[in-house]
């Protein structure tokens, strides 16, 4: 397989929750990879450079170069990894459970994250951005909490880690950045605690990234 | 299979682009289904009723009752239909092509639609909503056009209709509602023309829905 010869290259930003999703998946599957940092804040955002635009026309991270192709969009990348590297599957075998995993992923990946990402917050403006982000995170987490109450075991869906957990933990990290009160979401909090000491989640954590500024870990 | 005895029930709103995605998939796979209309505008939005909230905690359409379960979120539903009803596949067999389909889906389903849906536009406010919606559609369509230039055949990825087409055509409909100039996106326009006379896209079109108000089709 090409990936054994050429290590996959992940374009990532330490604090990007979508990059973190893919880092977790790579860690869980024990796929060695090289990180190329794309700073979303330096010089107005390196993701808008001509060079990076040719990697990802959406001008955002992550992007993954693997098996001779460049893939963008975190859910597409995680599905590709799962379909080509079946070790440590990120989806259950049962079709209904797979749908339940994807529901939770989609509430986060379409219903929360896009509304509180950096590009949108810049457009919303400094004055309103915190209230705006909190509003959409709380709305989405209420739905996630209800979906979890019907599906969670040790993790989001049953007792194995899935794509839903790869989406949830980075979103909880974002929620804390925006000072969202997480007490109304006990299942989310329980799963977050369950995974905070998991090696794949530790190694992929924003604070463990080469581009994390030292002051952020204090 | 349960669905042969109990027809699947789709909670749908005629103009909802996410409902339309699922209607296209059901039509392509020739799965008979019953529509229950959820008006997103009547009485402040029927999706916020206690009754509907128990169907979909995100308080949005679509939701599909099928095989004894209720599924929400359009990408999760389309994947479930594809995994349980393999006729007329919505994803290519090749893993890289599947990733390319999912990239286009995700740019639309996470990068465009969530930013221009009704709930967000109400929150943005009457005065700014058109400019806001246009901004995000144009940004996303620029990326979709680039992805298509590398992957499109007769349709979004190759010569078979995929989930990417199920996402693209409803988003083009939305773009027209917001008077987005589509001339900078020739491949999007070509695929839209290619599919406008396809039976599955006609039958699932907003104007063909039982809850479409007569004045909308004029």
TrEMBL record, chains A, B:
Alphabetically ordered keywords of this record: Cytoplasm, Isomerase, Phenylalanine catabolism, Transferase, Tyrosine catabolism
Keyword Cytoplasm annotated: yes
GO cellular component: mitochondrion
Entry's Gene Ontology BP terms: glutathione metabolic process; L-phenylalanine catabolic process; L-tyrosine catabolic process
Domain GST N-terminal: 6-89
Family to which the UniProt record says this protein belongs: Belongs to the GST superfamily. Zeta family.
Name listed for the protein in its UniProt record: Maleylacetoacetate isomerase
């Amino acid at each position: 397989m090409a990936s054994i010869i050429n290590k996959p290259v992940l374009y990532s930003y330490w604090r990007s929750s979508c990059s973190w999703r893919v880092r977790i998946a790579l860690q869980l599957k024990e796929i060695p990879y090289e990180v190329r940092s794309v700073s979303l804040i330096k010089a107005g955002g390196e993701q808008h450079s001509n060079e990076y635009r040719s990697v990802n026309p959406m001008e955002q991270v992550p992007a993954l170069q693997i098996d001779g192709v460049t893939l963008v969009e975190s859910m597409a990348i995680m599905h590709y990894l799962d379909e080509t590297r079946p070790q440590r599957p990120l989806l259950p075998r049962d079709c209904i459970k797979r749908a339940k995993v994807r529901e939770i992923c989609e509430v986060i990946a379409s219903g929360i994250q896009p509304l509180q990402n950096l590009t949108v917050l810049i457009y919303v403006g400094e004055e309103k951005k915190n209230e705006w982000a909190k509003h959409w995170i709380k709305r989405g987490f209420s739905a996630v909490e209800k979906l979890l109450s019907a599906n969670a075991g040790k993790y989001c869906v049953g007792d194995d880690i899935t794509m839903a957990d790869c989406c949830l933990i980075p979103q909880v990290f974002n929620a804390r950045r925006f000072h969202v009160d997480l007490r109304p979401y006990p299942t989310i909090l329980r799963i977050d605690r369950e995974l905070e000491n998991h090696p794949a989640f530790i190694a992929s954590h924003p604070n463990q990234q080469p581009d994390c500024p030292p002051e952020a870990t204090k």
